Amino acid sequence: MALALLNSVRRMIGALFNQPGYVAAQKMLDATVLRHHAIASNIANVETPNYKRLDVDANFGMQLNRALDGGHTDAMRSLKPSLVVDTNATAANRDGNTVKLEQELLQMNQNQLTHTLETQLITGSLLKLRLAITGRPS
Amino acid sequence: MISFIPAVNSSAAALDAERTRLEVISQNIANANTTRGVDGKAYQRQQVVFESVLRQAGGNLAVPELRVSNIVKDQRPPRLVFNPGHPDADEQGMVAMPNVNIHEEMADMIVASRAFEANLAVIKNARQLAMQALSIGKR
Known about the structure:
heterodimer, A: mainly alpha, two-stranded antiparallel sheet, B: about 140 residues, alpha+beta, two-stranded antiparallel ribbon, 2 helices, about 40% helix
C-alpha cells in the first residue's frame, strides 16, 4: 500500500519535469553550451593554418523540432547535440583557415542571447510549477 | 556534465599562445639592431608557429585547442648596411643587421593583441553563461 503510494508520487514528480517544452528547453541549452565550445575553439584558432571552423550539427535542431512536433519527450531526451566541421564555410585567404573573427563574435553574442532565452524559459516553467504547488506567486 | 564554465580551457590555451607570440615579437623589436647575438652573428628574427591539437573537453567531446608548436628563426638574409667604422663590419665595410622589419613586427603585434582580446571576450561571455545557468529557478 505504502509502496504503491510512493510509486505514484514518484510518477507524478517525474511527470512534472516531463513536459515537452521543458525537455526541449533543456536540450536546446545543451546545444547552446556546445556551440559556445565551438565558437571558443574557432576564435582560439583564428590564425591556425588549415583549421576548419566547427559548429553544432544542424541535424540536431531538425530532429528536436520533429520530436517536439510529435510531443515525444523520450525521443527528445535521447537526442544529443554534436560538433561537426562546418563544410559551408570557405577560406578567406590561402592559409586554408575558414574562421572569420567578426562572424564568430557575432555568433557568440547571438548564442548568449539564446542562452538567456533558454534559461528564462526553464526558470519560467519552474516558477509556474511553484505557483501551482504553493498557490502564491513566489 | 561538460564543465562548469564552458570552453574556458581552450580560450585559456589560446591566451597563453598569443602571449608567447607577443613575447617573441617584443624580443624581435628589442633586438632589431643587435649585430652580435648569442651566436656571434646578427640577430635572426624569430616567429612562432601555431598548431591545433584535439583535447578531450569532458565526455566524448573533443575540441581543437591552440598551441605553440615551435619557435623558428626567420631564414631571410640579414640586411647589409655600409658602415666601415663599425666593429662588426666585414672587409668591404658592410655590417650585417638583423632581418627584423619593425613595421612587420608592429603589424604582427596588433594582430596578436586583437586575437588576445577576442579570446578574453569569449571568457567573459562564458562567465556570463555560467552566471545565467546558476540563476535558473530564481526570478
